[in-house]
TrEMBL record:
Protein name stated in the entry: Angiopoietin-like 5
Organism: Labrus bergylta (ballan wrasse)
PANTHER family: ANGIOPOIETIN-RELATED PROTEIN 5, FIBRINOGEN/TENASCIN/ANGIOPOEITIN
Residue intervals of the Fibrinogen C-terminal domain: 136-381
NCBIfam families given in the database record: GGGWT_bact
PROSITE patterns: FIBRINOGEN_C_1 (PS00514), FIBRINOGEN_C_2 (PS51406)
Annotated signal sequence range: 1-18
Keywords for this protein: Disulfide bond, Signal
GO CC terms, sorted: extracellular space
Length: 384
């Protein structure tokens, strides 16, 4: 089958510029009608009289050559264009990526800036919370918070809670304490507070003896100071333990007499009659759990009544402090109370007891998970 292709003189300028093709110049700018057979060009005989070739107005071999040249030229241009396109695409992608990286860097620095601001703000809030108490009138002196309350009652209509300076009798120095003046009649000297778990209670004997933490927040006042507070002449102190569970149930345990011995006797605890809603975990259910009269123990001073070992929950225990997060307490084999555990560690692990422990406060037989506790003491009116 024969077919006719109409070749427009689109590439006439190229033709004109070619050397050795003078005869082409004779062409006017009309259409060139070329007939091709179905067979490939290379199979055509370039010379000889083939039927149908008469219709070629220019020699076919020249046309073929021109077309081939044109093809090479177009291919070359196409390759150049493709190369240029590839280059520009790569550049574009590089630019886009660089742009995105710049945007990411800006975002990242903004996030860092915001985080810094948040941290600054939260430390500001924390500081102002602390200062709210710290700035209060620490200049008010007394032997303890009950004494301060009695002294101020006649001059101040409402005595604020906060940090006050106390100077117990028979002591050559004064120290700061947190006084709760608006709880159950006020006059309470806080000797321990556990609220957020941010203060480390894994401490050696010296720290439990001297005290640690932040008076406005979590702290242990220190056994030496407590000894001086509760051993003043003609005074008797009650101990009040206020507990809050993780589901915001409150409870308490109160002892109508509380004092500790001196450090030479390892600050042994002495408790009066119990009253309250949380149960008497200090004494427990059995005599061997009774912590009343027990000396204090810490991770490095062992008075825990397990000498050399105790058998608790069918396990052998050498140190109650060790199995209770290296905290200090008046352990006795090891007992049912340790308020120096961590509120953060709410898991009721029967073996490693890390949490705040007051085992007699239960619901449906299960101990409450305690999230905060305060131990405070107040004078009891004595007849003489
Ligand atoms: Ca021991």
């Amino acid at each position: 089958m024969m077919w006719k292709t109409t070749v427009l003189l689109l590439f006439l300028p190229h033709l004109l510029s070619s050397t050795g093709t003078e005869n082409i110049k004779q062409l006017n700018q009309s259409e060139i009608n070329v007939e091709f057979s179905d067979a490939p060009v290379k199979s055509q005989k370039p010379t000889g009289a083939v039927k149908g070739w008469d219709s070629c107005s220019i020699p076919c071999d020249i046309t073929v050559k021109l077309l081939r040249d044109e093809k090479h030229s177009i291919c070359g241009q196409l390759q150049q264009s493709l190369l240029a396109f590839g280059r520009s695409t790569r550049k574009l992608m590089r630019d886009v990526m660089e742009e995105q990286q710049r945007a990411l860097d800006i975002l990242s620095s903004q996030v860092t800036e915001l985080m810094t601001k948040v941290q600054t703000l939260s430390s500001e809030v924390q500081r102002s919370n602390t200062e709210m108490y710290s700035i209060k009138p620490v200049q008010s002196h007394g032997r303890d918070c009950s004494d301060i309350k009695d002294n101020l009652m006649s001059v101040v209509p409402k005595i604020p809670s906060g940090i006050y300076i106390v100077h117990p009798e028979n002591m050559d120095s004064s120290f700061e304490v947190f006084c709760e003046m608006d709880y159950m009649g006020g006059g309470w000297t806080v000797i321990q507070r556990r609220t957020d778990g941010l203060t480390d209670f894994k401490r050696p004997w010296a720290d439990y003896s001297d005290g640690f933490g932040n008076l406005a927040g979590e702290h242990w006042l220190g056994l030496k100071k407590v000894f001086h507070l509760v051993n003043q002449k003609e005074t008797r102190f009650q101990l009040h333990i206020a507990l809050v569970s993780s589901d915001d149930i409150t409870s308490y345990a109160s002892y109508d007499d509380f004092h500790v011995d001196s450090e030479t006797q390892f600050f042994s605890i002495h408790l009066g009659r119990y009253a309250g809603s949380a149960g008497d975990a200090f004494r427990g259910y059995e005599q061997e759990q009774n912590q009343d009269t027990a000396p204090f123990s810490a991770s490095d001073v062992d008075n825990d009544g397990c000498n050399p070992f105790c058998s608790i929950d069918n396990r052998t225990v050498e140190s109650c402090s060790t199995i209770q997060n290296n905290t200090g307490w008046w352990f006795n084999q090891c007992g049912l109370a340790n308020l120096n555990g961590s509120p953060e560690d709410a898991e009721q692990n029967l073996w490693q007891k890390m949490h705040i422990l007051w085992d007699t406060w239960r619901q449906n037989g299960i101990p409450h998970t305690i999230k905060s506790v305060t131990m405070k003491i107040r004078r009891i009116a004595t007849n003489n």
